[in-house]
Amino acid sequence: MSVTLTKEGNGTVEGTGEYRVGEKIELKATADENFKFVGWYIGDTKITDKNPYTYEVQKEITITAKFEIDGILISKITFEEETVSLGINSTEGIQLKYTVEPENATNKSVVWEVDNLDLLTVEDGKIVAKGTEGTAKVICKALYGEARAECTVKIIDGTFIYTPEDLINNFGSKATWNQTHGWRDYSNYYIMADIDMSGYEYTTKDITFYGTLDGQGHVISNLNINETTRYVGLVKNWYGTAESVLFRDVDIIGTSYDVGVLGGRGGSGARVINVGITGNVTGKSEIGSFFGGVYGSVGFTNCYARATLSGSSRYDQGGFVGGRMDSCSFTKCYFSGTMTATGRVGVFQASESNENSSTRAVVENCYYNKDLFTLEVAGSR
């Protein structure tokens, strides 16, 4: 009759073999360092915790020796980031970072799982995408004990921006030429870290942007653009989406019309969501924190600007948009800042008239700092 010994946990067993019915054999379990033997089991039933154990053979059987850690178990696992993004074609992958508590846990070993193997693989905490967009959860579990943690991984088809050089060289780099409409970019770009542009000068991209710039909650600070042409900003024309990014302490300068942080002009269908701007924007006319002018309606949601707008002309400035020819919509937005213009100005969008009235903007649940922003009726041009 066959007696087969197996184990759960760290240790060794002795006693596996072929025996006669009625023969008494000795089963022995030896725990590894930092582990202890807890008992002999048939299935889920514990038969004894004796070790060595004398067993009388009756039939073919499998008996399992169970070991458990003899010390302090991991009580908590924490990922450094609970949500991470991974490029759809990232062959190098990224290493997930985590910590375990307590620091003096006896055994800090963990095991890894992923809930969707069609999207990515995980090995020792390193994740690699398989070429399909989607979202998966990576689970890190203590090898011993109940502690576990989950990390959400977004597999994204887009260009990742980590550094000032990436923003300068890679943003807008996917634009393609159209004989009728010029350079257009429909791609998606993702800010992967806070970026300090101090010491760098950014040049406005001569493109029309239809894609998405997703800041993922990061900050771009000290963005400096200084140009003598019309249409000054990240791009000349913005028809795409900007979301979840703060532009802090910008200094955007143009000597002509249409100056704003995102684009010289915003186009119909453009959307700006959860974006903030602080700093200075300077030009001649049609000056706004986000866009200089507009070609059609642009929508803003949950955005704010604390900016100083300066122009050599006394006309056409708006807290968000300096253009007055097409209406924009503003929902849950805030402006606090100053303007040098005195005619055709508006808290969020430049006015249609010299009396600073009759703007066609749709404004809902928005507010501004009246102590910093005042409207004065303009004199002659």
Describe what this molecule looks like in 3D.
The protein has 381 residues and is mainly beta. It has 3 domains: 2-69; 76-156, Immunoglobulin-like (Sandwich); 159-368, 3 Solenoid (Pectate Lyase C-like), CATH 2.160.20.110. 2% of the residues lie in helices and 54% in strands. It contains 1 helix and 41 strands. The strands form 8 sheets. Strands 18, 21, 22, 24, 25, 27, 30, 33, 34, 36, 37, 38, 40 and 41 form a 14-stranded parallel β-sheet that branches. Strands 19-20-23-26-29-32 form a 6-stranded mixed β-sheet, with no helix packed on it. A hairpin with a 2-residue loop joins strand 14 and strand 15. It is elongated. Residues 375-381 have low confidence and may be disordered.
Major beta sheet summary: 14 strands, parallel
> Unreliable stretches, pLDDT < 50, 5 or more residues?
375-381
- Total discrete domains: 3
Strand segment tally:
41
Characteristics of this structure?
single chain; mainly beta; Pectate Lyase C-like; six-stranded mixed β-sheet; Immunoglobulin-like; 381 residues
List the helices and strands and how they pair.
Layout: E1 2-8, E2 11-14, E3 17-18, E4 24-31, E5 35-42, E6 45-48, E7 53-56, E8 61-69, E9 76-79, E10 83-87, E11 94-95, E12 98-101, E13 110-114, E14 120-123, E15 126-129, E16 134-142, E17 148-156, E18 159-161, H1 164-170, E19 176-178, E20 182-185, E21 188-191, E22 195-196, E23 205-209, E24 212-221, E25 224-227, E26 235-238, E27 241-254, E28 257-259, E29 263-267, E30 271-283, E31 285-288, E32 291-295, E33 299-301, E34 304-311, E35 315-318, E36 329-331, E37 334-335, E38 338-339, E39 343-346, E40 362-364, E41 367-368
Parallel strand pairs: 1-8, 10-17, 18-21, 20-23, 21-24, 22-24, 23-26, 24-27, 25-27, 26-29, 27-30, 28-31, 29-32, 30-33, 30-34, 31-35, 33-36, 34-37, 34-38, 35-39, 36-40, 37-41
Antiparallel strand pairs: 1-3, 2-4, 4-7, 5-6, 5-8, 9-12, 11-15, 13-16, 14-15, 16-17, 19-20
